[in-house]
Amino acid sequence: MCLRRSKERLSVLGLLVASLAGAVLVLLSRVSAAPPATAYQLMDYESGIVVLERNGEERRYPASLTKMLTAVMLMESLPAGAKMKVSERAAKQSGALLGLKPGDTISREEALKAILLESDNDATVAAVETAAASVEDFLKAMNARAEKMGAKDTNFVNPTGIHDPRHFSTTHDMTLIAREALRNPEFASLVRLRTATVKWSSKPQGKTITNRNRMLFDFPGCEGVKTGTTPEAGDCLAAVATRNGWRLLVVVLGAKDALTEAKHLLDQGFAGYKRIQVLKEGKAQAQASVTGGRQATVAVAPQKSFWLVMPKSVNPRLGLRAETVALQAPVKPGQRAGQVTVLVHGKPRLTVPLLTTAAVEVSPWRAAGWLKAPGATVALFLLTYWALVYTRRRESAAQQ
To answer: Considering the domain 39-275, what is its CATH architecture?
Structure first.
């Protein structure tokens, strides 16, 4: 009897061990099959201050986020109303397509709608081939422009974002590119569109397209920007949104669900952080003395604005230390007149030049500055005395 119970216990124990081992194997298989961790960056749009970041400098595939820079360069290089003829190469692109055929013509404006809303690769290549001598020349200029923006760890080998191991960027670089692109008014207005009608030569009635960026539909205050996805890149998204006057920009690369992650990051930024403007460009911060001018002083203001971004629970002790220099008239607006240092808890955080906000003309009495000398004062007294005496003598002579 005891022997049978022992065997039953061993059997139950064996089943438990086998079940545990199976669970561990399943877990390990899921871990090994999982994609790499998401990279993201949340940035204060106005100042460029990074609020939240994960793997921001890690190289990733940007997919069709590439088209943000492609579109900006097309806007700058193609004249308004330019017509583009679709080549075999453009028509045979893979991925998202508008439906262009070899020999079709499409305008610059129509192609840009297809590029930014529906991420169409045929429209992208057709526009690039028109804008530059070759796609390769366009890419050289594209990489140079990215580097100029500060995107130092980015390399584009095609204008569409179709997968290539040599085509990479980082969330930090893509945030810089998105921020720069949004400064272009045409770009900013297009990425806000939820739907548009695109027309070309073989489809004069037009095709209605819908913006692939679901943030425009699902996240209040969203103003664009761009989506992208490939099997190798994962789900990618750049989005900008404004809430209570504060504008945040987020880029997510390599996600399973970039839309959900972007929403979460923006909510976290708006709810948990605050922005404090410490300096405002052009706003008078101090007075600088002026010698020989119509006014004795002139207002001076910071050369640039400066913000601090921090958790709402933090209340920093802020201070400003302005150091001005004496100026000599004439003074021009924008003339260097010292510097102002931002102090956080008594420690210097940033120093910004101070510039004059107005002009100060030379005083008409400046030429008489020599009157301040002691010898000149005595000479003036004697001259005045002589003039009085001479005047009285003439008056006496006239009465006689």
So the answer is: 3-Layer(aba) Sandwich (3.40)
